[in-house]
Amino acid sequence: MNAEQLEFPDNHFDIVCGNSILHHLNLENTCHELIRVLKPEGRAVFREPLGHNWLINLYRKLTPEMRTEDEHPLLASDLETVAGYFHEARIHYYAFCTLMAVPFRALLGFKGLLTVLEFFDRILLRLPFIKRQAWMVVIQLDRPVSGIANKTV
After folding, report:
1. Sign of the C-alpha dihedral, residues 81, 82, 87, 90?
2. pTM (2 decimals)?
3. Residue-wise pLDDT tens for the chain (153 aa)?
4. Cα 112 to Cα 54, 86, 102, distances in angstroms
5. What is the rounded CA–CA span in Å between residue 32 and residue 147?
6. 133 FRET partner, CA 20 to 30 A, in 29, 76, 91, 139?
């Protein structure tokens, strides 16, 4: 179903979740639909890639066959746009140092390396200027703002 034109009635869901979908969609249209189908105390949770890290962006440029035309990894401004449709928004940033483990994923000791890198992620991703460099975010959105769903985009 088209996430920008959902076929569900208003105030239908307690929770909506998605995995790497928002970065393929028009955020404003999708947010209007989200707040329309969510109940007043509803929650939306999404896991999405970020688009600020220069190394990840280089990889994306070198592997265009792995992307779709509509892909646009989220930027800080996109997170602000989405958050504006909800009374509460929490963003959890992750996968900064852990990216270094990818070439070693088939080797013995990978889990130990990943544990160490996750430890560094927990420390470094507390810093605002490092957060933007994370590969992924989990976005938790609570209580849609009423009245916005009726606006036209």
Report:
1. negative
2. 0.88
3. 899 999 999 999 999 999 999 999 999 999 999 999 999 999 999 999 999 999 899 989 999 999 998 999 999 999 999 999 999 999 999 999 998 998 999 999 999 999 999 999 999 999 999 999 999 999 999 999 987 654 433
4. 26, 39, 13
5. 10
6. 29
